[in-house]
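The passage that follows is intended for readers who have already worked through the single-chain material. We present the inputs for a multi-component assembly, then the predicted structure in tokenized form, and finally a short commentary. You are encouraged to pause after the input and sketch how you expect the pieces to fit together before reading on.
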Amino acid sequence: MLSLLCFLVSLLFLLLLPCLRPCFSAKGSLKDKKKIDEGTYVVGEEEPPKGLRRELMPRHVAVIMDGNRRWAKQAGLLTSQGYEAGAKRLIELAELCFKLGINTVSAFAFSTENWGRHKIEVKCLMYLFQRYLKSKIQFFQSKEIRVSVIGNLAKIPESLLGIITEIEDATKSYKKKHLILAIDYSGRFDILRACKSIVKKSEHGLIREKDVDETLFERELQTKCTEFPSPDLLIRTSGEQRISNFFLWQLAYTELFFSPVLWPDFDKDKLLDALASYQHRERRFGCQV
Amino acid sequence: MDLNQSIRLLSSWIGQIGDLGLNLLWRFIHIVVSLWYIVSGIFEAIESYAISLGLNKKYSSIDLEKLRCLAVVVDIEAVQDVAKVVELLQWLTTIGVKQVGLFDSQGLLKKSKDLILETVPGSMLLEEIGKDFSPDGKRIALEFISSSDNKEAVMKAANILLQRYLKSSHPENDKGENFFTESHLNEALGVVGENVHVPDLLLVYGPIRSHLGFPAWRLRYTEIVHMGTLNYMRYGSLLKAIHKFTGVHQNYGT
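Having made your guess, compare it with the prediction:
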């Protein structure tokens, strides 16, 4: 009953509002644009679409790119083509995120559990990473996007490791835009690795046992490469509603957005929906407001 | 001159009319979308009531074999109303869920532990039950969790492992591979008092779609469902979420 009443009131308001709008709006909007141009508009960055506010943009967006294989199957394509479409989508959306003022984008490209897939599929994935990263080095340099790769990396081919080192070195000086690729990554392994790192530092007298707290621990995780290690928004596609061992520690207060769409179909509009959903939430980080 | 002025005036009017028209179109689309959300909300509410009344045969019996452990995250403001939490637990008992972990970031539910155990029939503390817990009938094992069981617990467990490593006689080049495995951390978390029961399904009650700091170590493959606010919880929605979980198939990355 209440929602029906609200609907009727808002309907009346929405119908009457345009009639009350001043007729000389064209001139007014030109003035506003000039003000925007002088004050807040930054050359090279995209104006946020209607409904989104720049000051409420997340600083770090994480994505679990699920659904590439299903997408390929539905489209009658090879699995490798599904992965390629997924890679293209990631670059496209990362670029959009950076234009909207988001500093860090991280993507779960390959999990430790993925080694359990068919050998040929894994080999194909490693080759895809290698080829794609190599072809995009100049792109990342021209757009001033820093690229970091996190994960165990012990089992990945030498050739891919070489490309990773090359791309990290070529882009390490860029600060404003950061793309993090998690390859052979496991959230639990990240936590264990942090424990080992603390042990080593303690052995060398660099830290004392009583200094080990959450802040210090966070600095030992693999997300220490970014200024914003905890994502504000996590997007997982293809309808699965779990985090699958990705950023276990870091996701404590992250807004979780589960989309039913398969990753290669997760386009600009879907990303904007996710950002709009994020901006409408009242995040309290576990505290009472 | 007059002709130019007239043309300018006419084009200005046309511009303004066009502007108004586009605005009205935008408002109309807005109304349509709002109407769509209201209608779908009404349908959801009707479906939920139909499920509660047992009218939908699909939900009349749910196979809970896959759901060994369920966790509930409650937003800090909703926790003030313990009655709602008790009602939720009673529903879960009716459905047949045997083990529930209740989480709120500030630990307010831990403080109301006795009241909850008193009010929910057949409930008992998980830590008071042995490893071979297999409850019969309408009994439910409860665990009360807060943020201190998350990162703080991992810190303490890490310290335990650190102390063990330092006290042990190990070669200089030992990287600690034998001291820092998942099972070691599981054990250390147990020593600290953190239960490592991994929930199969996590229900989040609150305005925010976040698990609000639920113990990270446990969440590896947990299915997460946002249920809305606790004040507007519905039995039908709860049943639907659990039923949907029983149909989920996980690849575990392979």
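Commentary: The first helix of chain A runs from residue 2 to 20. Residues 20-44 of chain A have pLDDT under 50 and may be disordered. How closely did your sketch match?
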